[in-house]
Design a protein that fits this description.
- By secondary structure, the chain is mainly alpha-helical.
- Among the domains are: 42 residues, no CATH class; 49 residues, no CATH class.
- The chain is 32% helix and 4% strand.
- The chain is built from four helices and two strands; from the N terminus they run H-E-E-H-H-H.
- The chain has a two-stranded antiparallel ribbon.
- Helix 2 packs parallel to helix 4.
């Protein structure tokens, strides 16, 4: 197993997370200075500590003032007619095609079993395999297997 450690140095992000936690608890908006190192108004339950920078910062940024609006809880809305997704049908068996049935029947014809195939087709009330409906394919295939077809 490969273990990786990633260190992200973002002192302004730490302050922003602390201010967000404070503003979520406070009832009035808090105005903060992103580059100031002032103590937070109220201590968050789990303060985030900033990692010590390893390289000096060379870029100076202008102070940015942000005003966080108060958070007002909203009641969830329940739709009048919710859309219920329809369950998808998971096939339990491989879907049998008309081509597979025809190939299986042809292999039985080569084994001199034409009378058995004709009796099976008549059993399903159709003049030929091509007239079978898709819902008849699985039972017809099972009977071809019983006759010795490889399907």
């Amino acid at each position: 197993m490969l273990e990786m450690k990633v260190t992200i140095e973002a002192p302004a992000l730490v302050e922003a997370i602390n201010n967000l936690a404070i503003s979520l608890k406070a009832e009035k908006p808090i105005i903060t200075n992103a580059t100031s190192q002032t103590a937070p108004v109220a201590a968050p339950t789990a303060p985030v500590t900033a990692p010590t920078p390893t390289a000096p910062q060379t870029q100076q940024t202008a102070p940015i003032q942000q005003q966080t609006p108060p958070v007002t809880p909203q009641q969830p809305t329940i739709p009048q007619n919710p859309v219920v997704p329809q369950p998808t049908q998971i096939p339990t068996e491989k879907q049998i095609t008309l081509e597979e049935l025809a190939k299986a029947a042809a292999s039985l014809v080569e084994k001199n079993q034409m009378p058995q195939i004709m009796a099976l087709i008549q059993k399903y009330g159709v003049p030929s395999i091509n007239q079978l409906t898709p819902d008849q394919y699985p039972p017809f295939a099972a009977e071809l297997k019983a006759l010795g077809a490889d399907i």
